[in-house]
């Protein structure tokens, strides 16, 4: 019997486990894939596929609860990333290098600047730039760029390095990993979540459960969520390398974003496609992403293509994450982080840990309550859902 069983060892599950363990809880993560806690290994969840942009401002066209959560998420990185890098001895690629959103025509530039009006009134830091200033900041940017806005407080991280460090850090904090074990169903007794039933028929008991299974959340029975509440949204990424450091900022422009690495790699992302759980990289997407990237940074035309991949973002209909207890008591949902799950990992972990302890979370989670999905998604329940679960399945 563990205090808390966390389902899923992605960024949200690992950050939740660390935050729980720091509060003294005994924690076990159940993960269907193999997990190495030695700091090695890879995974197939979204957290390994992400571009690692911690872009709380660059994507924020208006003020809303998600943007506020993203700002809190970015602030948490300034604490979590150095701490975890120091305790594990790993470089997680955390850089507070800023983001630059650029335009190729006057209309686009006006639109970018217009979207930031609320940020100015909210006291967030940003700098409108013209084309010359953009090239002074990032000399490889095309002469066709007319300007845009710089967000100096946005940051980036290297997701595979971050994931290795999080898993290592979780292990250091005493978190146990039960890997290679897909969860089939949430078990309930006396009206509360009491454990998980694994695909091999075994079960694990926990005082509380945390569901952090990303886009696979809806495949697990008994969560109390409506059918298809969390769906996969495929994203494709092209990685190029010039062998020398090319950019410092994350660059957003028409048709793509560019997330640079110190070793000269540049990640170009990303598509958003609803193709079920079909992994793959398509010729059309690679063509479009590379064309858009070369328009912004012409020298990329001579870069080597070093890797292509796709991953599945956990999408909800209103694009908001799902945070909190839903229809099943004792089951804390931490899923549906869609485009911002890396950015929101540590803050989600802190929210989960506070909720598990019966405390007020550090951020108001009412806008992210699981119940809203019941209302908007209709009353249909998952096979084996809360009602049956409450009956003692
Ligand atoms: C191409 C792409 C680019 C992205 N770029 C960014 C970015 O720049 N910045 C950003 O903030 N976000 C980005 N995202 C989004 C981000 O990656 C996700 O929101 C985030 O990783 C979700 O984390 P998670 O832990 O919820 O899910 P995941 O990382 O998918 O982890 C879920 C885990 O649960 C496990 N699991 C699933 N089902 C079961 C089961 N039945 N039993 C046991 N274990 C199970 C899986 O194996 C997996 O390890 C991007 C995503 C994609 C695809």
Automatic annotation (TrEMBL):
It holds the Pfam family DAO. GO terms for cellular component: cytoplasm. GO terms for biological process: thiamine biosynthetic process; thiamine diphosphate biosynthetic process. The keyword Oxidoreductase applies. Pathway: Cofactor biosynthesis; thiamine diphosphate biosynthesis. Its EC number is 1.4.3.19. InterPro entries: FAD-dep_OxRdtase, FAD/NAD-bd_sf, Gly_oxidase_ThiO. It is an enzyme of class 1 (oxidoreductase). Keywords: Oxidoreductase, Thiamine biosynthesis. Residues 3-355 form the FAD dependent oxidoreductase domain. It comes from the Bacteria. One of its GO terms (molecular function) is glycine oxidase activity. PANTHER family: GLYCINE OXIDASE (PTHR13847:SF289), SARCOSINE DEHYDROGENASE-RELATED (PTHR13847). This is Glycine oxidase. It comes from Chondromyces crocatus.
